[in-house]
Amino acid sequence: MEKLIITAAICGAEVTREDNLNLPLTATELAEAALEAEKAGASIIHLHVRDEGGRATQDIEYFKRAFEAIKENGVTAIIQPSTGGAAGMSWEERIQPVDLNPEMATLDCGTVNFGDGIFINDLPLMRRFAEEMKERNILPELECFEAGNIYNALLLEKEGLLPDHLHFDLVLGIPGALPASVKNLLFMVELLPDGATWTAAGIGRWQLPVAMHTMMMGGHVRVGFEDNIYYKKGVPAESNAQLVSRVARIAKEAGREIASPSEARKILNIREGRE
Ligand code: KMH
Ligand code: ZN
């Protein structure tokens, strides 16, 4: 099996300090959380940003500040900004971070119910985001919340809008989308095309079981406060790094080595040193 890429989704758009006091929000806090997560084994930082009131924003100025703070802190992991933002945001608002030419960015592959809201990703939006990323040589992480989302991604590929290397993120357990279970994980993985790489993320209490099954199936793993705020039942996680280091520890015990940021770039076909 190839080495394990661990993504730390350190902040998200929905979680609040009321949910977990240790949630990083400011650029400085995000940079600190990113560095700790990298030291614990993360090679991708999935990034959302917040304004001064802690509200989710896709404003490029906040992303710029967070990118700078993260890089100044010595983080070498791939910084993967969200183009999903929060449910209800317009496409113009969401696409802003691609202007920073990150190595990767998320590309959400279908409209789903998202808690009480609707997360809109119709095909025109997906095409626009894919074209924008292709033009800038940004690797899209194809976020799939439902099996049908995988087929939407394959349609984009057929239309020539995706790079040669396809990388998926299977997100299981969003309230309103496909629930997390081992059966559903296997079902989605079997739909992926040959040669694609994939990460999986379980929401809430499914974070750890999804991570454990995924690492043994040859997939890559995403953990962090965006998806889950607990270390175990009733115990809030102390940090994103705590969640990352548990996955790294289990993987090593099970014989799966952890990818460094530069190894992750090779696995994902991202050119080293690309800005
Ligand atoms: N916050 C969700 C509505 C992404 O980062 O691309 C969307 C999301 C996916 O988090
Ligand atoms: Zn996200």
Gist of the model:
This protein is about 35% helix and about 20% strand. The chain has about 280 residues and is an alpha/beta fold.
Question: What keyword list fits this structure?
Answer:
two-stranded antiparallel sheet; single chain; 275 residues; 9 helices; 20% strand; binds zinc ion; binds (5S)-5-amino-3-OXO-hexanoic acid
Notes on the structure:
With 275 residues, the chain is of the alpha/beta class. The protein has nine helices and 14 strands. An eight-stranded parallel sheet has the order 5-2-1-12-11-10-9-6, sandwiched between helices. Strand 10 (167-172), helix 6 and strand 11 (197-202) form a beta-alpha-beta unit. Helix 1 crosses helix 2 (60-72) and helix 1 (27-40) packs parallel to helix 8. The mean pLDDT is 97. The structure holds (5S)-5-amino-3-OXO-hexanoic acid and zinc ion. Residues 13-14, 82-84, 86-87, 106, 108, 114, 119, 143 line the site of (5S)-5-amino-3-OXO-hexanoic acid. (5S)-5-amino-3-OXO-hexanoic acid (KMH) is lined by residues 13-14, 82-84, 86-87, 106, 108, 114, 119, 143.
List SSEs in N-to-C order.
EHEEEHEHEEEHEHEHEHEEEHH
Shape: globular
Q: What's the gyration radius in Å? A: 17 Å
Please indicate the percent range of residues in DSSP E strands (runs of 2 or more): 15-25%
Largest sheet: 8 strands, parallel
Q: Cα distance, first to last residue?
A: 29 Å
* Sequence of strands across the biggest β-sheet: 5-2-1-12-11-10-9-6
Give the distinct bound molecules.
(5S)-5-amino-3-OXO-hexanoic acid, zinc ion
Average pLDDT, rounded to a whole number, is 97
Structural class: alpha/beta
The total of helices stands at 9
Low-pLDDT parts are none
Could you tell me the number of beta strands?
14
Q: What percent of the residues sit in helical stretches (DSSP H or I)?
A: 25-40%
**Quaternary assembly:** single chain
